[in-house]
Amino acid sequence: MTLPATDDSNITTLPLKGKPATVTAIAPAARKIDYAAIGANVARNVIPPLIVLAILLVVWQVIFSQPGSSLPPPSEVWNQSYDLIVDPFFVYGSQDMGLGLRVLTSLQRVAIGFGLAAVVGVGIGAVIGQSIWMMRGLDPIFQILRTVPPLAWLPISLAAFMDSGPSAIFVIFITAIWPVIINTAVGVRNIPQDYRNVARVLQLNQFEFFTKIMVPAAAPYIFSGLRIGVGLSWLAIVAAEMLTGGVGIGFFIWDAWNSSRLTDIIVALVYIGVVGFVLDRLVALVGTIVTRGVSAS
């Protein structure tokens, strides 16, 4: 019988008692990066949106290129708001600066307000989720408060804080906290009973139960609430800044409207949409990492 030929490059001779013996040692295959697969994946996710965007821009250009159009076409937006598009971080004065700096100012307020809402919301939601009676008593109240529009809280916050900065942060906080509380409470209520039994067997204290059982088990629900909350936070700060002033992106839109700079408003809307999308993706990414690949949506 003829044996198939073997590759001697992977044969290692080991000395044994009596005579040498041959032991086959398979060399580990080198990991190769599949650039073709990566490129195909990028193309699937990038090319379709670019095609749709190009079509929308062409349609927009055709519809509003006629004399007397109510809105400027993309070519006019590019010509009149060129500085805002290509240089988002210029500074020519206290109120004459790029949209990048204005967005950063708004993001600072969002970070404070949303951060407080996340910490407080998860804590309150965890406590409520442990008690069926607290859930029944407080859930209707939370459901009512979460339907209050963000700007409706602004007069109350201005009367309480007497300053536009803390007032805007409070509006963000009070807007974002409700979905965090509700989703966290629901997630805690849905923790399997087996997990609770294990905690009793291991005699975990409340802090250990919270960190090792409750948070990991309810993480998908928690991050669902956080994603909703961060979106509402970004909406709230833009609306609040329109009334409180300052150098944020919201006040820029209001000031541009009063100055009849429609092209600047369109550019600002693009900034707002892109930043909101990035914030949502960041929270989703953190949720995916925390839940070890389990979707947070």
Write the CATH architecture name of the domain at 94-292.
Orthogonal Bundle
CATH class of the domain at 94-292: Mainly Alpha
- The CATH superfamily name of the domain at 94-292 is MetI-like
Label the overall shape. globular
Q: Which strand order do you get reading across the main beta sheet?
A: 1-2
What is the overall number of helices?
11
Distance between the termini: 61 Å
Pfam families: BPD_transp_1
GO molecular function: nitrate transmembrane transporter activity
Membrane topology: Multi-pass membrane protein
Function: Probably part of an ABC transporter complex. Probably responsible for the translocation of the substrate across the membrane.
Quickly list its features.
mainly alpha, cell membrane, 71% helix, single chain, MetI-like fold, two-stranded antiparallel sheet, NtrB, 297 residues, disordered N terminus
Note down, in words, how this protein is organized.
- The chain crosses the membrane at residues 46-64, 110-132, 144-162, 168-188, 209-228, 234-254, 266-290.
- Residues 103-283 form the ABC transmembrane type-1 domain.
- With 297 residues, this protein is mostly helical.
- The chain has a domain at 94-292: MetI-like (MetI-like fold, Orthogonal Bundle).
- The chain has helices at residues 35-63, 74-80, 82-86, 99-129, 132-145, 150-161, 164-189, 193-201, 206-244, 249-258, 262-290; strands at 11-14, 21-24.
- It has a two-stranded antiparallel ribbon with strand order 1-2.
- β1 (11-14) and β2 (21-24) form a beta hairpin.
- α2 packs across α11 (262-290), α7 runs antiparallel to α9 and α10 (249-258) runs antiparallel to α11.
- The longest helix is centred in the last third of the chain and has 39 residues, at 206-244.
